[in-house]
Amino acid sequence: MATVGLAPTPPSGSAIARPPRERTGSWPVIDRIAYGLCWAVGIGLCLIALAIVLFMFVKGIAYLRPSLLLESPAPSAIQSESGGFFDPIVGSLIVAAIGIAIAAPVGIALATWLSEYRRPTWLARTVESAIEMIAGVPSVVLAIFGLLIFSQRFLGFLSETDAGGAVSGKSFFAAGAVMSLLALPLVVGATREGLEQLSGRMREASYALGRTRSTTARRVLLPAIRPDIATGIALGMGRIIGDTAIITIVLGLTLTNEGVGRTPLISTLRGSGSTLTSYIYNNSPAGEGSAPQKAYAAAFVLLLIVLALNGLVTWLTGRGGQSEGGMLSRAFRLIPYMPDPSR
Amino acid sequence: MRAYRTLTHRTLVVSAILAVSLLAPASAMASKRLVIAGSTSMLPLVEKLAVAYHKEFHKIPAPKVEGGQTDIGIDDVASGRVDIGDASRDPIPGVDPSGLVFSKVARDGICVITNNSNPLANLSQETIQGIFTGNIRSWNEVPGATISGPIDLFDRENVSGTQDAFQNIFLGEALKISPSATQESSEGLEVNAVKAQTSAIGFVSFSATIYGGVHNVDYEGVPCTLPNAKSGQYGGVRNFWMVTKGAPKGEAAKFIDWVTKPGNLTVRKIVSSEWIAIH
Amino acid sequence: MDRHPLTPEPPRGRKRRWATARTDQRVELTLGALAVAALVLIGAMLVTVLIKAWPSFSHNGLSWFGPGGDIETQFRAMAQNKALPGHSILYFRAWPLIWATVLTTGSAVLIALLVSTLAAIFLTEFAPMRVRQVLDPVIRLLAGVPSVIYGLIGILVIAPYLDDHLIGTARRESVSYVVQLNGADVMTASLVLTVMILPIMVAITAGALASVPASWREGSLALGANRWRTIWRVSLRTARPAIVAATVLATARALGEAVMLAMLGGGRSFAPNLLDGLTALFEPVRPLAAAIFQNSEGLTIAPLGHTVYAIGAVLLVSAAMLSLAGWAAKQQFNRYGLRG
Q1: Is B34–A163 a contact, with Cβ atoms under 8 angstroms apart?
Q2: Taking Cα atoms as reference points, which of B249, B203, B270 lies closest to residue B51?
Q3: Backbone angles phi, psi at A176, to 5 degrees
Q4: Across the interface, which of A162, A168, A261 has its CB nearest the CB of B26?
Q5: DSSP secondary structure code for residue B182 in this structure
Q6: Cα radius of gyration rounded to whole Å, chain C
Q7: What is the ipTM for the molecules in this complex?
Q8: Which of A116, B2, B279, C105 could form a disulfide linkage to C254, CB 3.0–4.6 angstroms apart?
Q9: How far B60 CA lies from chain C's nearest CA (Å)?
């Protein structure tokens, strides 16, 4: 057995103090098998992960041309005439914007209420469980529920109504609203995490100066946890951009973003269109287009967007406010709140 | 100090009300356009007609055309969800909702297709019936097949008009397509599926085969081409209908009259390109 | 007075205002109302889905969950408004969908559990620093990859490979009278689903293993246990609640996966017959969420809509039960006094 002596100091940043490396030759067979298995699985996971990422990059770079990013899709079976995916990119951004525009204020408000007020307590606990439940509901179910709501006549102004009076219920408004349900648990979770980590002395100092709870929350606490809020929003956006089921069901899938009516911005939001995810689905062999090259290119763009959002989250959690435990545990603590960034 | 807050609040509230109220008249002012849904086989044709219709009458917005397959289109028009339904099969009394009016707009040929690596020259009706009902299960039993192995059967979904038409024309009333066939939900998917599998066989509208990628099989010795379909030599021809609830009225009537008017050269040109004009 | 006498007067004019106690009450009421509204919305969702689903359940009773015929035929009958002979129009037997869900989700979670535990141990204990630095961001990226992309890779790379190389003619012929085999089947779907839920399980488990108190591990090592024993007996035991939570999370995601399974599961709602032996691995499946996804166009047809909402209700209830399980697992967290 190796002498313990003066153990080498672990590199800074590592939370684990390691004993000097023990030789496995002295271990019982079962332990050695387990050790070997761990290594095998670990290396295998490395390889699979790298293979997926590299494959998408290689295929994407092979098929992505700048013109694809700027042309609108055109209906044609011939690849060279079917245009690019400008409209789907715009569509993805619109849906993400609407989703976050609804989820962010509501999420921050809910998180503040859950953290600072919490009266009556039974209501607070029920709301917490409800938000957890929403996080676990499959997005298809949210989609069919959303379709039901937006097909009602009184919400006809949010989508297209045909000449016979029936409301289609499928529009960017509707899709964005349903998407906000996806992002809500993430924003609430991240904001609550941030609020709960703030030292109690911050609040006490503010109250001692005579401020009320609402002023404290608005002027002291929320600004202090801006990185956490931003993390929650970034996670929410990642989940929204990656979703396909809601888009296919609630956004009337047309090749280009067609507006309804003539008011400039509102007509696009009331109209139908497509997003990167539905474009990829339609161009894969599972959809009509069967244009794998375009699908790979669009998938590459989508992956870049997700990468950028991930990078943003990493940077933000690094800048975190009053955290104890450093970046690693912060990031990992947030993971339970991103049940699946994409479905 | 209170006045300032009230001022800010009032401004916010008023602008919010203004923004919301903009939506209501905006939605009312926008002229409603026709919504047409149904057969995926008719989709390319009706899309072209919609664009041409808007080009001719600038004031009328182009109708919105969707797929969804025939039966769903018929159901939608019966319940008032869309204005016009596209049906690629003949009306079935007793099954279709009552009160619907079918207006014929074109005729279309159905081709049996196989993968390009299996360029079957010809299939008789008997062989087609055997293959599609599942009695003939291997390419070894099919004369003229260049591959061997089990047959991969591709069908359309049960709400498809093309499936109904194929069944009536090629199989007849009594026989049904084998339930082990894979069902595709649109023309495009059917073509893709046959393109992808060497042992595949399926059926699509003639217009879906124009861009190639699959092999058209002759039926009873007659090649599946547009001239043969027009002349009546090719047996697998079915009707395209536009369906309305009751007699067509209003915008829908205008559109359908424009499409079915004898002597309308624009429409004739569009239809004759890949389908069979009825006038 | 609602202000402490020593606090300075709030500035007048157009400068910033501080809230008074009355404003605070109003804020609390508004926020509370928002919370109630959110609750009402979620409750409305539950209630609406259940109401729309009720006709399907009431017509079929408990045998809704049982076997009894081809699902495609049943959907056809509803879409064409032509009831199957001897049954009502709402006749539906969801067993193939349920069995497909059990197979795909169950196998994916089981394999992922095993693999993620070993991988997490590797990541926190055995991996060299450089490997860990590369793998951390890669795993976090994988956790965020949208499911369409997994579906795309599966359908363009894995399925054709399987179709050409692993499914032989003899195997196809053995089941050709019932179902057609191609690369999209239960095995492809389960494998890709496993890869989809792995990153999140690895991340949570690794996080939990990393937060095992160093003193516990050192104590075990000091007592003479080798590293593996320490991990097995001390670290993993401590991380057990986290592993349970990760499993619950992964199951929720696997259950709700619709798009990827629709692309890779195959073209039919078929219940693989395990008696077929290995061939059962290659038979097409369509789990519950994928079935909703594929039939979403028919929602407006009444009987079809009721059935699809019924499937949605089943998924909702499962999600709620999983939430409950997750909450129960979190209770165990607190027992150990460790954050997950």
Answers
A1: yes
A2: B270
A3: -60, -40
A4: A261
A5: E
A6: 26
A7: 0.86
A8: C105
A9: 28
Check CB contact of B10 with chain A, cutoff 8 Å: no
Q: How many CB pairs under 8 A join A and C?
A: 311
Is residue A262 less than 8 Å (CB to CB) from chain B? yes
- Sequence-ordered list of residues with C-beta below 8 angstroms from that of C283, at least 6 positions apart, any chain: C175, C179, C181, C185, C186, C266, C270, C272, C273, C276
DSSP letter string over C186-223? HHHHHHHHHHHHHHHHHHHHHHHHHTS-HHHHHHHHHT
Within 8 A of C339 by CB-CB distance, chain A residues are: 333
Nearest-Cα residue of chain B relative to residue C174: B150
CA distance A132 to C320: 9
**Distance set, CA B210 to CA A75, A77, A136, B38, B216 (Å):** 15, 10, 46, 22, 10
**Total residues belonging to chain A:** 343
Q: Which two tokens stand for residue C179?
A: 């179902």
Contact B149 C12 (CB under 8 A): no
Task: State pTM to two decimals.
Answer: 0.85
pLDDT tens string, chain B, 279 residues long: the values are: 556 567 777 777 777 777 666 665 555 555 578 889 898 889 889 988 998 998 898 888 888 888 888 888 898 888 888 889 999 988 988 888 889 999 999 999 899 999 998 898 889 989 999 999 988 888 888 888 888 888 889 988 877 888 888 988 888 878 888 888 888 888 888 888 888 888 899 999 888 888 778 899 999 889 988 888 888 888 888 999 999 998 988 888 999 999 998 888 989 999 988 888 887
Query: Roughly what angle, to the nearest 10 degrees, separates helices C95-121 and A29-63?
Result: 110
**Alpha carbon distance B178, B130 (integer Å):** 10
